[in-house]
Every structure is written in C-alpha cells, then in structure tokens.
Amino acid sequence: MAGQTPNEAFRNYLDLLRAALRCVTLTPLTMRERTRLTTDTPYTVALAELDPVRLRGTFPLHLTVGQIARIVAAEDPDDPLGPFDVHTVQYLYEVSTPEDREILSFHWRPDASGDDVVTTPHLHIGPAITAGQSVLRPRDPHKAHVPTGVIGIVAVVRLAILEFGVRPLPSNWANILQRAEDAANGGSL
C-alpha cells in the first residue's frame, strides 16, 4: 500500500480494499475526497456511506464497513514502492440480518476516550446469536468486548464466504483475497 506520493499510496490502499470487497458486493467503497492528500491526516472510507449492504448467499446477510486510515512516511525511506504508506487506524465491520440485528461486529478505536470505551481491537457477538443466552451478562451479552488482534476487511470477506455462506461474485475470489493480503505486506487491510 505504498506509493511515490500520498495520493498514490492512498489510491493503492483503496484499490486493494475495493478488490477485496468486490468479492462479495458491487456496492462502491467511497472516501471523503480531498484534492490533495497529506500525511498524518485521518481519512474515512466506507462502503455505502456505512449503510448495511445486502450480500447474496445461503442466508440473507448485510455487511457494514468503515475504516479510518492515515498516510505516513514509509518505515524504509528507500522502499522501491515509495516513501509513503497507508495504515488503518480505526475500523468497524459488521455482519447483520436484514432486520438490522447484529450477528458479529468487529471494532477498533485506539484513540477513543471515556470510562466505558474499549480501545483495543475487539468483537461483539450480536443479539442474533446471543438471544436467549442467560448465563453470562444476562441482560446484554452482545455488549461484551471479545479481544481480537487487528482484523482486516480481507478476513471479514473470507469469513462471510467460508463460514456464512455468502456467494462470492468472482470465481477467483480466493486468489483476489490472497493478492490483497500479499500486497498489504503483513499489515491488515
């Protein structure tokens, strides 16, 4: 996700995100465009302006995707891919029912503040799964913050296809997701 200019780095980042998402939806991923992108500025990208998007498959599911990313100077200033890189610094990914009942929701907000705020990457297991559960957190089990590592959109798309029966749009979806992961050079996308 590196580039010779901040704009090129961010364009490369968006291209990888879009390629991964096109495995399950043709809905566009957009960002609040700026004419000239700069380093150390947060930029928001979202699928359908954070509205849930219908996915086709065995079960009727919706997907919500939002990220905040920042352009930074590459760790290696002599990197042949360019002196600029893009890092995801916050995200929200949610799989829900058509009735907007949360199934799984991945959050990461490291800069958030407040007494009840969890700043580490975590997962919420939604009411669509926990309904009726009365052993743990009897009134609100879906509000538990299950710790995770940083999760990228590629992992969420793969989960939707392999575990939730979402029908991939291209037949070579696994190769597309692998290329996106490889291009991210070990970082989360």
**What order do the helices and strands follow?**
HEEEEEEEHEHH
Q: Specify the helix fraction band.
A: 10-25%
Overall strand count: 8
Rg over CA atoms, rounded to whole Å, is 17 Å
Number of domains: 1
- State the helix count: 4
Determine the mean pLDDT.
Answer: 90
Q: Which of globular, elongated, flat, extended, rod-shaped describes the shape? A: globular
Distance between the termini: 9 Å
Biggest sheet overview: 8 strands, antiparallel
Task: Pick out the low-confidence regions.
Answer: none
Strand content: 25-35%
Structural class computed from helices and strand pairing: alpha+beta
Structure description:
This protein is α+β, with helices and mostly antiparallel strands and 189 residues long. The chain has one domain. The protein contains four helices and eight strands. Strand 3 and strand 4 form a beta hairpin. Helix 1 runs antiparallel to helix 4. The longest helix has 16 residues. It starts with 5 loop residues before the first helix and ends in a 6-residue tail after the last helix.
In terms of topology, how is this protein built?
Blueprint: H1 6-21, E1 29-31, E2 42-47, E3 53-55, E4 61-73, E5 84-96, E6 102-108, E7 122-125, H2 127-130, E8 146-147, H3 153-164, H4 173-183
Antiparallel strand pairs: 1-2, 2-4, 3-4, 4-5, 5-6, 6-7, 7-8
